[in-house]
Design brief:
Elements lengths: L5 H17 L5 H8 L3 H13 L3 E2 L9 E2 L11
Antiparallel strand pairs: 1-2
Helix pairs in contact: 2-3
Length: 78
């Protein structure tokens, strides 16, 4: 398995906890608010996480992210 960067790990942890708390995947807008970044930055991160097989998603389908890592493989959310 490819290692993730610190920033990628934080996005993965956010996705995990968001799904655990809300029962559904976060929207890109949720990640944008949490990480205080731009929509293109979040979208590029989602594409990179998918490319590295950390997540799967259905293109153009809101909240379709599925985490492909276990909790044990994730860092704590900072």
């Amino acid at each position: 398995m490819t290692e993730y960067t610190r920033k990628q790990g934080q996005y993965l942890a956010f996705i995990y906890y968001s799904m655990k708390l809300n029962g559904i995947a976060p929207a890109e807008a949720d990640m944008q608010r949490y990480f205080r970044t731009t929509p293109p930055s979040v979208h590029q991160m989602v594409l990179k996480l998918e490319e590295k097989s950390f997540i799967s998603r259905v293109p153009r389908t809101p909240r379709s992210i599925r985490l492909l890592l276990t909790r044990e493989q994730l860092p704590d959310l900072e």
